[in-house]
Amino acid sequence: MTADAARRGTRFGIIGFGRIGRRIAERLAGTQDAPELAGVLVSAERQQAVAGIVGEERVFTDPAVFLGLGLDVVVECASAAALAALGPAVLASGADLMPLSLAAFADHVVEQRLRTAAATGPGRLEIPAGAMGSIEFLAAAREDVLSAVTFRAAYPVERWRGSAAEAMTDLAGVTAPTTFLRTSVREAVRQFPRHINVAVGVALAGLGLDETTAELTADPAITQARFEVEAIAGPGPVYLRVDGRDAPLGSDPIDYTTFSLIRLLRRRQARIMI
After folding, report:
1. Strand 148-155 to strand 226-232: parallel, antiparallel, or no bridges (unpaired)?
2. Which pTM value belongs to this model?
3. What is the DSSP string of 11-51?
């Protein structure tokens, strides 16, 4: 963030306004030392509904008008397709980009396009930790012989139904934790784009999508997702684990994904940056 941006306060925009985009807007609205929500980019079909939440003057359907707002940072929480289509333009506009739909990086061409746009700037890519909670250990370990990283995702058996997992294991017969796929993060995300966005953040922080291993498990003993990272590096081994929070059936509990984005936005205006 530039000195001018720090003086005037951070202006941010949101691409997409599903549950995470709405949570960010509502949690930061009117709070002390929070960045200013300058605009939300949505489809024309959603314009009226979103205007009722954030105000008509903040809702846009034209990307060019949205990117002309003079934003310091844009949070993408729409879709992998939206990130692929709009990411380079966001960076070229001068805004930093916090992408949430990291499954877009599984496509080699899209990954290279985003990396090139970030290298060209003037905006920068800032990868949020998302549901993993913290990926700083991996980024630090990369400075001293980070040699192996494994990401593990375990879901209740029911969460895998309707996905490619049904062709890899007999979900109906799973009575104990069953790992049904071990491959690169890139290949795992290609096959399960809706399940393990978080794995891409881990890979980008460490060894990359092709050199980071992903293990996917169906576990009948758990009721929420469980994510683990194991890494071998010069400073010592790293082991991280984040468990999902149990909640009543039909509820929509907030997870670390939302909070990781809010933290990064608040950090831009904090006098003590953590």
Report:
1. antiparallel
2. 0.89
3. EEEEE--SHHHHHHHHHHTT-TTPPEEEEEE--GGGHHHHH
